[in-house]
Amino acid sequence: METGTTRNVVILGSGPAGLTAAIYTARADLEPLVLEGEPSSTSDQPGGQLMLTTEVENFPGFPGGIMGPQLMMSMREQAERFGAEILTKKATKVDLNARPIGIWTGDPESPEPDVTTRSLIISTGARSLMLGLPNEARLLGYGVSTCATCDGFFFRDKRIAVIGGGDSALEEALFLTKFGQSVTIIHRRKELRASKIMQDRAFKNEKISFMWDSVVTDVLGEDTVTGLRVRDVTSGEERELAIDGLFVAIGHTPSTELFRGQLDTDGAGYLRTTEGSKTEIPGVFACGDVQDHVYRQAITAAGSGCMAAIDAERYLATIE
Ligand code: NAP
Fold it and tell me: Catalytic: 287?
């Protein structure tokens, strides 16, 4: 990385939003720098959530499907082909009100930022909350999933379990009834958190059954999921439930820690954007799942990355 020079655009994050923004800004000769993040845990790593899925069948242009990590490698290669610089580093601090904007990648207490930039595109994504069980992480992509829209198709005529009691869990469960033989919703309480309309739909659906007051204590299976160990929290009794697929739908959390106190978030903690990708700070743009808790698809993230790149390009033209 060249030091001492101010970049035109820095992109934080390397999922479909960040890499699409990199392709567009690189083709606009803005020589973007992408801080792709660092492998830190199974739910937070360079390439974003697609690195955690197996086959992606709904990204247009791939009639035979493509593996999630392969899709991300291709986007990365495409960005680099046009001159994007991609570093395996994550930002530890940002000063969005400084001009140029300051970004630290090492000690956040250091007086000087490691990188300065005229514009910033935030595409740090969101992480699915997980139960935190060792076998859940091991079998992610092999029967454990966090996205019914992405993976439901692979569970045709299979026995599926969904964890959670909110709108996401019910939405995933209802969607999965199109494919699965049965869908069991496992919830840690006796009452659902989900909206009444979603509850009504789930209760009416004949394929859906509920396991109340229950928590999953282990995911079973060698190469793919074969079952769950479930504990009844009222009696303490444990039993095994034979299933083929587990969908964890206990919520998402946007990766916005870095911007706390500097950018506005909505009630759920997602960055607020207006007029495409603009945040309230001129020159700072946001795209992908960090600002979208509604659609959360690779293709919508990529689309919003394109919007952020165009917005950044236009902003840079105004300050020249
Ligand atoms: P949520 O409302 O926070 O619900 C999370 C659910 O997971 C809760 O039922 C919670 O149980 C359970 N849970 C959390 N941690 C758990 C753990 N460690 N083990 C077991 N269960 C756990 O999250 P969400 O469903 O993703 O929804 C987020 C927001 O998006 C909500 O405002 C929701 O209305 C909205 N949303 C709307 C729609 C729609 O309208 N179609 C669809 C999806 C999401 P407790 O209930 O016991 O806390």
Answer: no
Q: Is the CB of 48 under 6 A from ligand 1?
A: no
Name the β-bridge partners of 246.
144, 161
Closest among 143, 196, 205 to 178, alpha carbons compared: 205
Q: For 196-254, how does the pLDDT look when each residue is reduced to its tens digit (9 = 90+)?
A: 999 999 999 999 999 999 999 999 999 999 999 999 999 999 999 999 999 999 988 99
| Ligand 1 atom with the shortest distance to the CA of 131 | 18
For the whole model, what pTM was predicted?
0.79
Cα–Cα distance, 258 to 262 (Å, whole number): 9
Q: Which atom of ligand 1 is the closest one to the Cα of 252?
A: 26
Domains 6-128+252-319 and 134-248 agree in fold: yes
| Alpha-carbon distances, residue 182 vs 36, 175, 245, 248 (angstroms) | 39, 12, 10, 16
Q: Which CATH superfamily is domain 134-248 in?
A: FAD/NAD(P)-binding domain (3.50.50.60)
Contacts of 15 (CB under 8 A, 6+ apart): 47, 48, 49, 50, 72, 123, 125, 288, 289, 298, 301
**Dihedrals φ, ψ of 85, to 5°?**
-100, 125
- The single-letter code of the amino acid at 17 is A
| Fold assignment, 6-128+252-319 | FAD/NAD(P)-binding domain (3.50.50)
Cα separation, 6 vs 319, in Å, equals 14
Q: Is 167 in the pocket of ligand 1 (CB under 6 A)?
A: yes
- Per residue in 81-103, pLDDT tens? 999 999 999 999 999 999 999 99
How far, in Å, from the CA of 55 to the mean position of ligand 1?
26
Residue extents of the structural domains in the chain: 6-128+252-319, 134-248
Task: Tally the residues of the chain.
Answer: 320
Q: Which residues pair with 214 in a beta bridge?
A: 232
CA 159/CA 66 separation, integer angstroms: 25
For the beta carbon of residue 317, count every other beta carbon within 10 angstroms. Answer: 9
